[in-house]
Amino acid sequence: MRSDLRTAQDRAHALLGTVEHRDLGPLRVTEAVAFARACGERDPRLLDPGSTGFQVHPLYLPSLLRGPDGGVDGDYREDGMFRDEVPGTDGLDVRLMAGGQSIAFHRQTPLGDPIAVRRTLDDVACKGRPGSEFLLMTVSKVFRAARAGALATVTERFIVR
């Protein structure tokens, strides 16, 4: 196994079960509408904040990775991902790929209510055969609103080569 991949595996094993919290701030109407437009939505409940029953597109919430200030240049890897998005890989010469995602929605996402995400690295497994190993990491995220409670649970898998 390449040394950077071994280092990523060792770091990830050390992080297993560690809970991280990130405040995402309140969801803003303009950003929710822009997301729905980018998804090609035509439903006025997702596009017009003045319409009866306006709501946030359900996939907007799991797309949030940072709070309202976003990130600065130093927060990104060369491939455009956030440096800390895949636990244990920051600063290493590894390739990252999405390996699947499942989402359980618990309730509508409220506008204006501060949102926080709780992230946990649940599993790290070495796969492949000698000389072509890769890591499969499983991360869970629980998105919560300050007053509404749990909004969604997201399980993501990342392939690290």
Describe the protein.
Strands 1-3-4-5-2 form a five-stranded antiparallel sheet. The mean pLDDT is 90. The chain is 19% helix and 35% strand. The longest helix has 13 residues, at 3-15. The protein is built from four helices and five strands; from the N terminus they run αβαααββββ. It starts with a helix and ends with a strand. It is an alpha+beta fold.
C-alpha Rg (nearest Å): 18 Å
Q: Biggest β-sheet: count, sense, barrel?
A: 5 strands, antiparallel
Mean pLDDT: 90
- What letter string, H or E per element, gives the SSE order? HEHHHEEEE
Task: Report the portion of residues in β strands.
Answer: 25-35%
Arrangement of strands in the largest sheet = 1-3-4-5-2
Number of helices: 4
Distance between the termini: 10 Å
What is the general shape?
Answer: elongated
Helix content: 10-25%
Derived structural class: alpha+beta
Low-confidence stretches: none
Q: Tally the beta strands.
A: 5
Summarize the structure.
It contains four helices and five strands. It has helices at residues 3-15, 29-38, 44-47, 60-63; strands spanning 19-26, 96-105, 114-127, 134-145, 149-160.
Tags for this model:
161 residues, alpha+beta, 5-stranded antiparallel β-sheet, 4 helices, 5 strands, 19% helix, elongated
Secondary structure elements and pairings:
Elements: H1 3-15, E1 19-26, H2 29-38, H3 44-47, H4 60-63, E2 96-105, E3 114-127, E4 134-145, E5 149-160
Antiparallel strand pairs: 1-3, 2-5, 3-4, 4-5
